[in-house]
Amino acid sequence: MQIMQLRYFIAIVDKHSFSEAARECFVTQPNLSQHMRALEKELQVPLFIRKGRSFEVTPAGKLLYQRALQIIHEMDNLVVQVQRVNRNLGSTLRLGLLSSMEKGALPQVLSEQVLNRTGLELELFYGSHDELYDLFGNGSINAFVSDERRLASSQSFSKVSLFTTKLQVELPKSLELPPHPSGKPKVELSALHGMTLIIACESEHFEDECHALEQLLHFERNYYGRYQYIPSLAEGRRLLQSHEGSALSPSALLVDKSLLKHAHETPAKLTRYELLAQGKAIKRRLCCYARKNLGAAELGELCTIIMELGGVKRELSGYQENYQESYQENYQASYHPDHYDHPELDQGPEPSFGEHSIPL
Question: Which of 174, 226, 247, 270 has the highest count of CB atoms within 10 angstroms of its CB?
């Protein structure tokens, strides 16, 4: 079975005519008919029921038509993707991620996926929301992942909604907290009263991060004794472990879940808890922000990779509008809400499979 034969077969069904399909495919009508006879012989099933000068598509032919559309769609996308990877070789994608996200195996896995599927070398930068925004604004990074509420949409860049993540905290194991009714490591925000919350950020962005955190957690404004900044999660964990078992005021390290599903780095002396407010998880939606020098196809592939690594299945949207022209020229794929890693085909109008004209 040849790809060209499938293209011919699709054209015949779509055009309801052998002669019109032959003109569309730039082949002679006898050549087209010969290919269909060869296809039927190879499959050992009739694809058409001939009725004089017309025909109907058989049930086997209808199945072949639907599956052939998928195959051709995937083949066409594959060609575009292979060409894109080759075109991007030697170029670099500079991506910013939150310092509060644990790394683990993510950098290596993400770099391999981005290179294999876009052809771009990946360079990662870590920082707080405002640090990443500064790097993005001065052109140091092409894209970054951040909290949706921290930056509004703009015509000057693209914003793609990814998924919702739960806020977590890490505490010393020696700290005795009342067990959650579910038996899982969860802690109410009220249980952290009097603790120092450690935030991964640089000193110049500390106040902005505290203000955003207060809005998220509905804490009263009180920076002194309540918050402490630390450049990275690793340093925050070392600080917690150094206080483990001491009489010092207890501290809690705020952590964002890794983009890599099941990634977990918490050291042995610490316990990670899901942070709750009145019994409900504290959530924030992550978005990917991208400059216009990152193509629509590359951005779509990057966001798809991130959601795949996170084990998230949902519809990807939000970047087509700002990239509509290049999006249509280079790559077009929509994502099914339940199975987003399987492109939903744009099949056009449903074929009638009624009476069609066929040459003698």
Answer: 270
Sequence-distant (≥ 6) Cβ neighbours of residue 173 within 8 angstroms: 244, 268, 269, 270, 271
- Rounded Cα distance between 26 and 185, Å, is 66
- Calculate the dihedral angle through the C-alpha atoms of 61, 64, 69, 71, rounding to the nearest 10 degrees: -160
Which helix or strand (DSSP H or E) is residue 168 part of? strand 158-172
* Contacts with 356 (C-beta within 8 Å, 6 or more apart), sequence order: 12, 13, 16, 17, 54, 55, 56, 57
Query: pLDDT tens for residues 313-335?
Result: 665 654 444 443 333 333 333 33
CA–CA gap between residue 90 and residue 213 (Å, rounded) = 39
Position 41, amino acid: K
Q: Are 160 and 287 in contact (CB under 8 A)?
A: yes
pTM for the model? 0.68
What gap in Å lies between CA 16 and CA 325, rounded to an integer?
Answer: 32
Q: Tens digit of pLDDT for each residue in 196-215?
A: 889 988 888 888 888 888 88
Residue-wise pLDDT for 83-141, tens only, equals 888 887 888 999 999 988 878 888 999 999 999 898 999 999 999 888 998 899 888 99
Nearest of 143, 132, 140, 154 to residue 295 by alpha carbon: 143
The b/e string for 290-323 (b: 16+ C-beta within 10 A; e otherwise) is bbeebbbbbbbbbbbbbbebbebbbebebbbebb
Q: Rounded distance, CA 299 to CA 28, Å?
A: 42
Grouping H, G, I as helix, E, B as strand and the rest as coil, residue 315 is coil
C-alpha span between 117 and 105 (Å, rounded): 18
Which alpha helices (DSSP H) does the chain contain, by range?
Answer: 3-15, 18-25, 29-43, 59-88, 106-118, 129-137, 206-217, 233-243, 296-309, 324-330
Who contacts 194 (Cβ-Cβ below 8 Å, separation ≥6)?
249, 250
